[in-house]
Amino acid sequence: MGFPYSYITIEGNIGAGKTSLATRLAEKHNARLVLEEFAENPFLEPFYKNPERYAFPLELSFVAERFSQLKQELSNRDLFQSLVISDYFIQKSYIFAKANLNADEFGLFMQLFKIIETNLPKPELLAYLYLPTERLQENIRKRGRSYEQEISDQYLQSIEKSYFAFMRQHRKMRVVIIDTSDVDFVGSETDFERMEELLSQPYKPGMHRVKA
Question: Which among 27, 121, 183, 196 counts the fewest CB atoms within 10 Å?
Fold first, then answer.
């Protein structure tokens, strides 16, 4: 099974399974895999303890890191790997900044972001993995990152709200929102194949909602 796209981004809330799905897809389809490098960000753990103090440096550092990685990865395309699959896109910085920054900080952030986003190609398909908050929290607990264990339901809901506001505002993008509440694409081959099937559809620009 192939895809009618050359650049697919798997997105979703914290704990939605973005990296797991992107990795499985890339391995099976010999695609170039682009994974977000967030573990070394020095502001991430302090942010969860004191978001008001660390939100602005966190978002600035993330947008700089994401731009640098995507520019390098997407400009050096391997001719033998015509498909690129990533677990984030540059607009993720906008989405999280919108949720985390106050009005003055967000205005300053956007001055930089508008310059950056125009210099990167956009995914041909954006797949958003939807999970209800309780399932997100379950996944967060299972993966066991200490700094994530205090993430509140309210914060996850604010991030989801920011994602959906972004997708509604960008109707020309090709977006498929996949409800993955009842699937296990890591542990079940049948469920994984269902995800492949959904991602292989020739969607028209706009938002599409499907259930896996």
Answer: 27
Domain boundaries, the chain: 7-211
User: Which pLDDT tens digit goes with each residue over 119-170?
Assistant: 899 999 999 999 999 999 999 999 999 889 999 999 999 999 999 999 999 9
Instruction: List residues bridging with 84 in a β-sheet.
Output: 7, 32
Owner of token pair 């106050």: 102
**Total residues found in the chain within this entry:** 212
Where are the alpha helices (H) located in the chain, listed in sequence order? 18-29, 44-49, 51-75, 91-100, 103-117, 133-143, 153-169, 189-199
The identity of residue 166, as a single letter, is F
Residue 209: count other Cβ atoms within 10 Å of its Cβ.
11
**Where do the DSSP E strands lie in 45-151?**
84-86, 125-130
Cα–Cα dist 64/70, whole Å: 10
CATH for the stretch 7-211? 3.40.50.300
Which among 150, 142, 162 has a CA at the least distance from the CA of 11? 162
pLDDT digits (tens, 9 = 90+) for 95-120: 999 999 999 999 999 999 999 999 89
